[in-house]
Amino acid sequence: MLAICFLLVCIFEFANGFHDTANAVATVIYTNSLKPRVAVIWSGLMNLLGVLLGGIAVAYALVELLPPDVLTPPNGNPAVPMLVALFGTALAWNLCTWWFGIPNSSSHCTIGALIGIAIGDSFLHARDLGHSVDWGQIWKVLRALAISPLLGFFLAGLLYLLIRFAVRMPALFTPPKPDESPNPIVRALLILTCTSVSFSHGSNDGQKSIGLIMLTIIGLMPASYAMNPDHPTDRAALAQMAQEARPLIAQYDRYSFKPDALASIDRLKMVTTPATPAQIRGDVYEILSGLRDVSANPASSSQEKQTSTRLAKALRPTVEYAPYWVRVLSALCLGVGTMVGYRRIVKTLGEGIGKQHLTPAQGAASELVGAGLIASAGYTGLPVSTTHIITSGVAGTMVAAGSGINMRMLAKIALAWLLTLPVTITVSACAFYLLN
């Protein structure tokens, strides 16, 4: 079962590659700027670079959607039900939408499945939803997912209009001809935009992959990976920070984290009592949940928010990290997936969204805007969807060009977007509940 769980995460990242990363190579392949094999290899290398040079803020923004006792069960057993529910649900929905050539978001799938697991945990332990589900963190993540496609639509449309006004080059605004490469300037521009999106994808979506792999290895082998080996755990130092957090957590409690967080503080101060790495990790995450609530509470003062942020920043390195081999594995899974399944998504983006075929200017505008939005989100630690941003950007350029949108395809995409969260939340919640 443990081997199956690890295989599931690799297959999911592989599917993420041919479902999400295909958006980065769609324009250069569709316009014949690069041969498909060259494009996907180049995109894979840029993804690898983005993953290796990116941080891990986005990775653990996803991890923090789960209740601590789900990730590291108190009984010390591997978190197999969580992993099977997560990857089984997200992978099934990903493959379903890919089969029909619909640019659905792997990020959307993952976040929906994580929320479902948190809800399933509430039902499993007969707890109020506010006790197991960190609604503040969920709202922060969903807000980024909702706003980024709208920004992609309007900014890409605006950039396309600026390009059309400033650049007098007919080749930029003419749909590509089969087996005919664009002129060198257009080709260089499109390769540049592909490079930018691929690197940005690695720095944001690649971080999500890192987070999911870390979820897997921590859930399967908590004794080895629950705590950061490069940040030695000093129980006394943790206990001191926990005691400093106590009055803040005790005062502000919007989402019912106080009882668990205060119990964790009491356990950490018993430095002479033996505790497993998984138990310490669980206690640290309970305290981090309480500190997030302090920072989000409008009643807390600016000084209290600063103290909460300082303590959280000091506690996080003990439990939030990613070994180098995890970054490499993430990049390899994404890259290989891109090489296998890009064709369906390329055709949809190139010919299915607008009533006319995609032009180089439209592809460049949507990808430049997409690269900027994805990179800025990665820097701020917010998970966004490459698929949503690029697809909405292409739609924005189609509207700006006056060519119109293929309403039938748009309806299919919108239906997939609208159904993704309810379906993945429901399926993963039921799967997690039944598996337990």
TrEMBL record:
GO biological-process terms attached to the record: phosphate ion transmembrane transport
InterPro entries cross-referenced by the UniProt entry: Phos_transporter
Catalyzed reactions per annotation: phosphate(in) + H(+)(in) = phosphate(out) + H(+)(out)
Keyword presence, DNA damage: no
A cellular component term, taken from the record's GO annotations: plasma membrane
Membrane topology: Multi-pass membrane protein
Principal location class: membrane
Positions of transmembrane segments: 40-63, 75-93, 105-124, 144-165, 324-342, 413-435
Keywords, comma-separated and alphabetical: Cell membrane, Membrane, Phosphate transport, Symport, Transmembrane, Transmembrane helix, Transport
Cell compartments where the protein resides: Cell membrane; Membrane
Signal peptide bounds: none
Recorded GO MF terms: phosphate transmembrane transporter activity; symporter activity
Homology family: Belongs to the inorganic phosphate transporter (PiT) (TC 2.A.20) family. Pit subfamily.
Designated name of the protein: Phosphate transporter
